[in-house]
């Protein structure tokens, strides 16, 4: 059955793989599943046809036959449950991997995303610098615990899982901040994940889509 995802017609990150279709593409590549991409303009994202897929008019979405999904955590979990390769075989290992997926979406990514709120939406406020410091300290606090938990392991639960995929994709948003490099094991963890062939294929695909959008 054909899998179709939606993504930005021209990603504002200019192909750096920061938009959230990246994690869905990556999960599909890990699972060895081909997919097609429906590219949407910002205007198309807010039209009824897309709002029926995604109630908040955002990308990405996932369509497979008569199943339409939104929210990347739910999409990646669906892919991981539907196809082998992203969740451990044993029930307890699966549950722990899923816990990390929730942790990425609920505990790790929100504090990282706050940095972008400060940078893009709070410019010109006389309290911006103070808040930036506060938000960065919160990020460092989360990273300290995550770093302690990962220790010298390759992956959070022994083998690579959808939990690592979601956590790494959230951590990638710190790549240009310098914060990740304060935690060498986390920087190495992200680099290890980005070296996976599936990640590279997903990254190349979203970059090619951005480059194509600039041509015509
Ligand atoms: N919780 C939802 C999920 O995980 O699916 C969040 C989806 C979401 O934030 N989608 C964003 C979107 O559609 C794109 S990924 N935004 C448009 C809107 O809300 O109207 C977030 C994103 C966008 C751009 C960059 N960038 O340029 O670096 C990075 C991340």
Textual characterization of the structure:
This protein is of the alpha+beta class. The chain has two domains: 3-85 and 198-215, Glutaredoxin (3-Layer(aba) Sandwich), CATH 3.40.30.10; 91-196, Glutathione S-transferase Yfyf (Class Pi), Chain A, domain 2 (Up-down Bundle), CATH 1.20.1050.10. 57% of the residues lie in helices and 9% in strands. The protein is built from nine helices and four strands, in the order βαβααββαααααα. Strands 2-1-3-4 form a four-stranded mixed beta sheet. Helix 5 (91-121) runs antiparallel to helix 6 (128-150). 33% of the residues are buried.
Question: What is the topology?
Answer:
Blueprint: E1 3-8, H1 21-30, E2 36-40, H2 42-45, H3 48-51, E3 61-64, E4 67-70, H4 72-82, H5 91-121, H6 128-150, H7 162-171, H8 184-194, H9 197-215
Q: What do the pLDDT scores average to?
A: 97
Note the beta-strand portion: 5-15%
Under the CATH scheme, the architecture of the largest domain is Up-down Bundle
Ligands? S-(P-nitrobenzyl)glutathione
How far apart, in Å, are the first and last alpha carbons?
31 Å
Helix content: 55-70%
What is the overall silhouette?
globular
Secondary-structure content class: alpha+beta
When the domains are counted, the total is 2
- Low-pLDDT sequence parts: none
Order of helices and strands: EHEHHEEHHHHHH
Radius of gyration based on Cα positions: 17 Å
Main beta sheet strand tally, sense and closure: 4 strands, mixed
Number of helices: 9
Q: Kindly report the spatial arrangement of strands forming the biggest sheet.
A: 2-1-3-4
| DSSP E strands, number | 4
Question: Which fold name fills CATH's third level, the topology of the largest domain?
Answer: Glutathione S-transferase Yfyf (Class Pi), Chain A, domain 2
